[in-house]
Design brief:
The structure holds 2 protein chains of 2 kinds. Chain A is elongated. Chain A has helices spanning about 5-15, 20-30, 35-55, 60-105, 115-120, 130-155, 160-180, 375-400, 400-410, 415-440, 445-475, 480-495, 505-525, and strands at about 185-195, 200, 200-210, 215, 220-230, 230-235, 235-245, 250, 255-265, 265, 270-280, 285, 290-300, 300-305, 305-315, 320, 325-335, 340, 345, 350-355, 360, 365. In chain A, the strands form 2 sheets. In chain A, strands 1, 3, 5, 7, 9, 11, 13, 15, 17, 19, 20 and 22 form a 12-stranded parallel β-sheet that branches. By secondary structure, chain A is α/β, with parallel strands linked by helices. The longest helix of chain A has about 45 residues, at about 60-105. Chain A contains 13 helices and 22 strands. Among the domains of chain A are: about 5-45, no CATH class; about 180-365, no CATH class; about 375-525, no CATH class. Chain B is elongated, with a radius of gyration of 19 Å. In chain B, about 40% of the residues are buried. Chain B contains 11 helices and no strands. By secondary structure, chain B is mainly alpha-helical. In chain B, about 65% of the residues lie in helices and about 0% in strands. Chain B folds into 2 domains: about 10-95, RNA polymerase sigma factor, region 2, helix turn helix motif (Rna Polymerase Sigma Factor, Chain: A, Orthogonal Bundle); about 100-190, Orthogonal Bundle (Arc Repressor Mutant, subunit A), CATH 1.10.10. The chains are: A alpha/beta, B mainly alpha. Chains A and B meet through α1, α3, α4 and α12 of A and α2, α3, α6, α7 and α8 of B.
């Protein structure tokens, strides 16, 4: 009898023979004692080998036990670099933007206060310490919510549960201001607060023609075409109007965005406004500072503190008890003008100053240089800093929301849908946010939507950067490779957006595209899917060729 | 090491994929011993095994190679595959006790040993003797046996790690067994058994 060779026997016990050959071997071993013994010996040899190798004789050496700590430390440099980059970015932002602004404001004599105190304590947002307590409460609540989200994020894996919790938190926030806002709203073609009326609390006025002739013991929020404030407002005035005239007395601040703003009455605190034309008439008086973005300002009245102005033209006939800081085209100081502080003017033309004007010091004039930005060295430094900031922002977002980021990048490949939806969201969300803000209850939702939309403008560029990176380096859905592609793609996108002439349009297109991709990913995420929670089938590896799994075994 | 049937630390794996150092610590504690033993079997000295274990985990962490791991499959098996590739790279670079090339493997004589003597040999040898004999084998033979009988790797995985065609894996394993028997001092007698 011809015996089986050893290789065949080995392949048989290793289950590497095809079924027919395995059956032949099995049949042969029924009759051949020698081959049966060989098969058994090979099997015992396999078991001996496994046993010899699996028996534990070597404990983990101390050197390897220490390696764990070393390995942990080796990962820490990544976070050190990340925090270092973040700190550098924050410092660059502060030293490049915030600090110069703050310095200029302080030089302009804003009571030596910093930017934050200017915005809060001198602004319309400052409501006294009582509201500060409320603000602190809100901040405490937000901090607590942040901790709660971080805590539950580790435990509550289901996105829906987290979304429910966030929705509850938002609802609580919405209820909070809604209950606190005891206010009155009036609408119509012609809205009037009569001369004999006294309104307790805030009032919202919407109309073609709006008149406030009476007294408002609170703030006035006014939206209209032609608005006159003739009465007495004990709080602030927020105005969005074609024409806004303040003929009466405002004890607080005026914050306005108008076509024409005329002040012939008294504003006890500050005015912050964005307009085409502003007139402070000779009878008009502002007790605080005037911060203004305008085309033409005629200042005939009295301003008790400083004037910070970005304007095409300023004509000064009145009295300013503080300093002037102006950036614009032309400055005319007429004979009746009086300025008690220093005047700094950066403009295109030499200021026209009447010799009769009473100035504490000559005008400090700097001619505005119109060198193209890309001719300046620091422009490129800032581009690099911005690029680093974008990459860092993207890194954080991709780490926080790896799946969503990958989905958004995938959505960006649906070019038509992305662009279409991008246009819709780009223009639609701010409009919707403004409409939401107009309704009192929707104020929080409107502001929140606007901030999310604004953040999405930056995120959009990161998404497109990641897609461009994928074009160059191949597709991936893994987080770190995707971050790498995002960094490479962002460099290209940012380079494209600084090309003189077309860069702005490229940036606009990138924003529309990315915004649409984010919106598509959000839309897809909130679509109900029937099999969303169905566990995937366990993976079964394909059988190798010539396998007799389940076939006959040696006796 | 996760024993067969024991649940693998999927959460730690998922977190380690995102670069979580603590999760890497968990994986290291769980798997370092097994990978060290694998390396100890595959490489000539204990120091080599220690270095290799550290290198394997360091590379995994540094390059975040966990991203290449298919989470639907066994993590243990994947880790053994990584370790096998690393050890084989180490051995190839050293070119110590290099085995015959693949061409020679085709001509290996498929002798029929005396079944009774083989059975007797297996019966008489202890685990300790087998481990000592393993240390005397050539790199390829030892790698093949460790991959197959320690980490239970498939023929495809062994072929991939050793860089040979799948059809030769059986030949490599059989040749390794012959080397082992020779090292155990009985190979000659077994080979002389011939066919009946």
């Amino acid at each position: 009898m011809q015996h089986l060779d050893e290789m065949t026997c080995l392949m048989y016990i290793e289950r590497q023979l095809d079924r027919a050959r395995a059956q032949e071997v099995s049949a042969h071993t029924q009759d051949c004692a020698a081959c049966r013994t060989l098969l058994r010996a090979l099997e015992r040899e396999s078991r001996l080998l496994t046993r010899a190798m699996l028996e534990e004789e070597d404990a983990l050496p101390a050197r390897l036990a220490q390696f764990q700590e070393r390995a942990r430390r080796s990962m820490q440099w990544i976070w050190t670099v990340a925090f270092g980059l973040a700190a550098t970015g924050v410092y660059a932002l502060y030293s490049g933007y915030i600090e110069p602004w703050q310095r200029e404001l302080e030089q302009a004599g804003f009571g030596g206060s910093n930017l934050l105190s200017l915005l809060i304590f001198q602004g319309a947002f400052w409501k006294g310490w009582q509201s500060m307590i409320t603000l602190l409460e809100v901040l405490a609540l937000v901090t607590l919510a942040g901790f709660a989200v971080a805590f539950f994020r580790k435990r509550v894996r289901r996105g829906s549960a987290l979304a429910l919790m966030l929705a509850g938190f938002c609802a609580a926030l919405l209820l909070q201001p809604a209950s606190a806002m005891a206010s009155e709203t009036r609408r119509g073609d012609s809205v009037v607060v009569g001369p004999d009326e006294t309104i307790k609390g805030d009032i919202f006025l919407f109309g073609e023609r709006v008149r406030v002739d009476g007294t408002v013991d609170g703030d006035v929020f006014v939206f209209g075409h032609d608005v006159n404030v003739n009465g007495h407002v004990k709080g602030d005035v927020f105005g969005f109007a074609q024409q806004l005239r303040v003929n009466g007395q405002v004890d607080g601040n005026v914050r306005a965005s108008t076509n024409t703003l005329t002040i012939s009455g008294t504003v006890a605190k500050n005015v912050l406004t964005l307009d085409e034309a502003v007139n402070l008439e000779s009878s008009g008086k502002i007790g605080g500072s005037l911060t203004i973005f305008v085309e033409n300002l005629n200042l005939d009245g009295t301003l008790d503190k400083d004037l910070l102005i970005f304007a095409k033209h300023l004509a000064l006939n009145g009295k300013i008890n503080g300093a002037i800081k102006m950036k614009g085209d032309t400055l005319t100081i007429n004979s009746s003008a009086q300025v008690a502080g220093p005047i700094s003017f950066e403009g295109n033309k030499e200021p026209e100053v009447s010799p009769q004007a009473k100035l504490v010091s000559p005008v400090d004039f700097h001619k505005m240089e119109h060198k193209p930005r890309y001719m300046e060295g620091h422009y490129y430094v800032w581009q690099v800093i911005w690029l680093a900031a974008f990459v860092l922002f993207g890194l954080v977002l991709f780490q926080l929301m790896p799946r969503f980021a990958a989905d958004a990048v995938a959505s960006a490949e649906r070019y038509g849908a992305s662009f279409g939806l991008g246009v819709l969201v780009f223009f639609g969300v701010p409009i919707a946010a403004i409409i939401a803000c107009v309704t009192v209850v929707g104020l929080f939702v409107g502001l929140a939507s606007f901030f999310v939309w604004y953040a999405a403008l930056y995120f959009a560029q990161i998404i497109v950067g990641a897609l461009v990176g994928q074009w160059l380096m191949g597709r991936t859905r893994e987080t770190w490779p995707l971050i790498g592609r995002m960094a490479v793609g962002l460099i290209i996108v940012r380079l494209a957006t600084v090309i003189p002439g077309v860069g702005g349009w490229i940036k606009f297109g990138v924003i529309l595209w990315g915004l649409g991709a984010i919106s598509l990913a959000l839309y897809d995420r909130f679509q109900p899917t029937l099999a969303a929670n169905t566990p995937s089938a366990p993976y079964t590896s394909p059988l190798p060729p010539n396998t007799t799994v389940g076939g006959m075994q040696p006796a | 090491m996760s024993a067969p049937g024991k649940t693998e630390p999927t959460e730690a794996i998922a977190r380690a994929r995102t670069g979580d150092a603590d999760a890497w610590g968990v994986l290291y504690r769980e798997y370092a011993s097994a990978i060290f033993r694998f390396c100890r079997r595959a490489l000539p000295t204990r120091e080599d095994a220690e270095d290799a274990t550290m290198d394997i985990f360091a590379k995994l962490m540094r390059d975040n190679r966990l991203l290449q791991y298919d989470q639907s499959r066994s993590f243990t098996a994947w880790l053994y595959k990584v370790a096998a590739n690393h050890c084989w790279d180490v051995l190839r670079r050293r070119k110590t006790r290099q085995d015959k090339e693949t061409d020679d493997l085709e001509n290996v004589p498929l002798e029929h040993p005396d079944p009774n003597q083989l059975d007797k040999l297996i019966e008489q040898r202890t685990s300790e003797e087998v481990r000592r004999a393993l240390d005397k084998l050539g790199a390829r033979a030892r790698m093949a046996l460790v991959m197959r009988y320690y980490s239970d790797m498939s023929y495809d995985e062994i072929a991939d790690a050793l860089g040979v065609r799948r059809a030769f894996v059986g030949v490599v394993l059989l040749r390794a067994r012959h080397e082992l028997r020779q090292a155990l001092g009985q190979s000659g007698a077994l080979a002389a058994g011939g066919t009946s």
